[in-house]
């Protein structure tokens, strides 16, 4: 695993890309301000046409994706019919929270660019999205079986012909085994953990790596 300082990601941006729209966290938020800035920066580096998010939750990150790109955004969550046995207590509480609240993007001017998908990601049919996504966030279920399956599906969905990025959340979250899994994956592909955040990302198809390692 490559551990990099946050400024390495910010330095990938040109002067003209340094303005971002970031929603300020509230009591139910699951990402920090630094994490939001990192994600917005990676988004601007890739300038995606299409985005796929595993785990909509309240739609905060979905909204930020819409505010900082012109991409079509697909976001998948369990939905009301969920009977996933792979949720722990914390995740069940989160799911309850997200089901009883409006999504943050519901009234957004970009609403028409956001496609909500419902289903268990380990059962979902990803075939329509094959090699069609420029930017993917894996932030759904945290059970190892789910993260592994989401990662495999992300690799099938990622574009093959233009710069692209996959991001994982919850690296070094002591409640989950995601850290061991990503450390293992980093033996096969270059992965970058952004220090002071729980984000790990990989760049694909020529998205620049040189500035990150120097
Ligand atoms: C940490 S939250 C997502 C946070 C969101 N990406 C954000 O940045 O605000 C995880 C979400 O994943 C959903 N989830 C858990 N297991 C899932 C599964 N197997 N398939 C689809 N969604 C799942 C939960 O319902 C929850 O809303």
Short description:
The chain is of the alpha/beta class and 214 residues long. It has helices spanning 6-10, 33-46, 60-67, 89-99, 144-157, 178-185, 210-213; strands at 2-4, 50-54, 72-77, 114-118, 135-138, 164-168, 192-194, 200-204. S-adenosylmethionine is lined by residues 30-31, 53, 55-58, 60-61, 76-78, 84, 87, 91, 94-95, 98, 120-122, 139-141, 146.
Strands, helices and their partners?
Elements: E1 2-4, H1 6-10, H2 33-46, E2 50-54, H3 60-67, E3 72-77, H4 89-99, E4 114-118, E5 135-138, H5 144-157, E6 164-168, H6 178-185, E7 192-194, E8 200-204, H7 210-213
The structure holds S-adenosylmethionine.
Describe this structure in words.
This protein is of the alpha/beta class and 214 residues long. The protein has one domain (2-10, 31-213): Rossmann fold (3-Layer(aba) Sandwich), CATH 3.40.50. 30% of the residues lie in helices and 17% in strands. It contains seven helices and eight strands. It has an eight-stranded mixed β-sheet, sandwiched between helices. It is globular and about 45 Å long. S-adenosylmethionine binds at residues 30-31, 53, 55-58, 60-61, 76-78, 84, 87, 91, 94-95, 98, 120-122, 139-141, 146.
Bulk shape: globular
The CATH homology group name = Vaccinia Virus protein VP39
Order of helices and strands: EHHEHEHEEHEHEEH
User: How many separate helices?
Assistant: 7
What is the correct CATH architecture? 3-Layer(aba) Sandwich
Bound molecules: S-adenosylmethionine
Largest sheet: 8 strands, mixed
> Gyration radius, to the nearest Å?
16 Å
Rounded to the nearest angstrom, the distance between the terminal CA atoms is 15 Å
Instruction: Work out the count of structural domains.
Output: 1
CATH secondary-structure class: Alpha Beta
**Weakly predicted, low-confidence segments:** none
Structural class assignment: alpha/beta
Mean pLDDT: 91
Strand order of the largest sheet: 1-7-8-6-5-2-3-4
Number of strands: 8
Strand content: 15-25%
CATH third-level topology: Rossmann fold
As a percent range, the share of helical residues equals 25-40%
């Amino acid at each position: 695993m490559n551990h990099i300082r946050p400024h390495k990601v910010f330095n990938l941006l040109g002067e003209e890309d340094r303005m971002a729209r970031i929603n300020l966290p509230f009591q139910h938020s699951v990402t920090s301000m630094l994490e939001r800035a990192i994600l917005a920066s990676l988004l601007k580096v890739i300038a995606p046409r299409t985005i796929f998010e595993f785990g909509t939750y309240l739609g905060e990150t979905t909204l930020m994706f819409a505010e900082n790109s012109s991409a079509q955004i697909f976001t998948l969550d369990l939905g009301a019919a969920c009977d996933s046995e792979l949720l722990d207590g914390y995740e069940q509480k989160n799911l309850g929270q997200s089901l009883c609240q409006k999504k943050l993007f519901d009234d957004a001017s970009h609403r028409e660019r956001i496609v909500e998908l419902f289903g268990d990601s380990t059962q979902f049919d990803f075939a329509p999205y094959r090699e069609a996504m420029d930017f993917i966030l894996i932030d759904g279920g945290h059970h190892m079986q789910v993260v592994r399956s989401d990662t495999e599906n992300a690799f099938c969905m990622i574009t093959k012909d233009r710069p692209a990025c996959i991001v994982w959340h919850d690296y070094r979250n002591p409640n989950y085994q995601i850290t061991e899994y990503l450390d293992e994956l980093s033996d096969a592909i270059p992965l970058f953990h952004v220090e002071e955040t729980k984000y790990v990302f990989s760049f694909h198809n020529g998205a620049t790596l040189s500035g990150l390692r120097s």
